[in-house]
């Protein structure tokens, strides 16, 4: 487990969440440290897993994958084996962008991205209904995106 983040580490993370394409020099200038110190801190954040990876955010509508579906999945039989099979299968599906084990009425919450409703129906038929056990699924289609953020609130704005 990584040690507590320093103020400089937090500034590095905030800057990278805004623009992950910054050079080390630009990042160092932005956070107020030397490039060599910034590079060492950056490498440490990567090696300890604080920074998981670097990626580009693609606009779903512009890429013609604009339908967002939230699927609430309940396994009818609960066992470690059933859960492992489900989790392994979900990880292999590219249209499943996120999967969380959750409390409440469902066991899992999936965020699924598809081009059209027919593609979601195909996802159900070819994947969910082919699982070797029974599941119940409740689907909610996103009508409109109100807020979408990927940056964690690291700058002392929690609860603000």
From TrEMBL:
Cellular component terms (Gene Ontology): cytosol
Keywords carried by this UniProt record: DNA-binding, Plasmid, Transcription, Transcription regulation
Keyword Glycoprotein included in the entry's annotation: no
Domain HTH asnC-type, first and last residues per copy: 5-66
Highest taxon of source: Bacteria
Tagged with keyword Transit peptide: no
Regions annotated as coiled coil: none
GO molecular function: sequence-specific DNA binding
Family annotation (Gene3D superfamilies): 3.30.70.920, Winged helix-like DNA-binding domain superfamily/Winged helix DNA-binding domain (1.10.10.10)
InterPro entries tied to this protein: ArsR-like_HTH, AsnC-type_HTH_dom, Dimeric_a/b-barrel, Tscrpt_reg_AsnC-like, Tscrpt_reg_AsnC/Lrp_C, Tscrpt_reg_HTH_AsnC-type_CS, WH-like_DNA-bd_sf, WH_DNA-bd_sf
GO biological process, one term: regulation of DNA-templated transcription
Cited PANTHER family: LEUCINE-RESPONSIVE REGULATORY PROTEIN (PTHR30154), TRANSCRIPTIONAL REGULATOR AZLB (PTHR30154:SF34)
Name of the molecule in the record: Transcriptional regulator, AsnC/Lrp family
Record organism: Azospirillum lipoferum (strain 4B)
Classification of source organism: Bacteria, Pseudomonadati, Pseudomonadota, Alphaproteobacteria, Rhodospirillales
């Amino acid at each position: 487990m990584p040690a507590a983040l320093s103020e400089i580490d937090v500034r590095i993370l905030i800057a990278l969440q805004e623009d992950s394409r910054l050079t080390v020099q630009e990042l160092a200038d932005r956070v107020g440290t030397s490039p060599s110190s910034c590079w060492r801190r950056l490498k440490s954040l990567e090696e300890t897993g604080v920074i998981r990876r670097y990626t580009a955010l693609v606009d779903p509508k512009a890429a013609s994958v604009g339908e967002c579906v939230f699927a609430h999945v309940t396994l009818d039989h609960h066992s470690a084996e059933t859960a492992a099979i489900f989790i392994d299968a979900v990880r292999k599906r590219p249209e499943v962008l996120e999967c969380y084990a959750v409390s409440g009425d469902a066991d899992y919450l999936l965020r699924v991205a598809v081009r059209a409703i027919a593609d979601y129906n195909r996802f159900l038929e070819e994947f969910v209904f082919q699982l070797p056990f029974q599941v119940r699924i409740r689907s909610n289609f996103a009508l409109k995106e109100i807020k979408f953020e990927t940056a964690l609130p690291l700058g002392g704005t929690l609860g603000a």
